[in-house]
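Spend some time on this chain, tokens included, and walk me through the fold:

. . .
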Amino acid sequence: MLVLTRKPEQSLVFGDNIIVTVLAIEGDRVKLGIQAPRDVAVLRQEVQAQVQAANKQAAAQKVNPRTIAEALRRRSTPPSS
């Protein structure tokens, strides 16, 4: 692990287009500003772990293809008056 020391208003650059700036240090908390392209996911580690667990759970579920087809048909059919 690379360990760096930064002061408020100092930044780190990752690759060509990701910049992390220390905005403030308040007690035991550090506020970071992150500039990254929209196609780069920026998540807190605990949120990423929750997303991965939910994806694994969803992928493990057995789904009947007919159920999916019926749901798609209902979505594409305009409601009758």
Strands lie at 11-14, 18-26, 29-35.
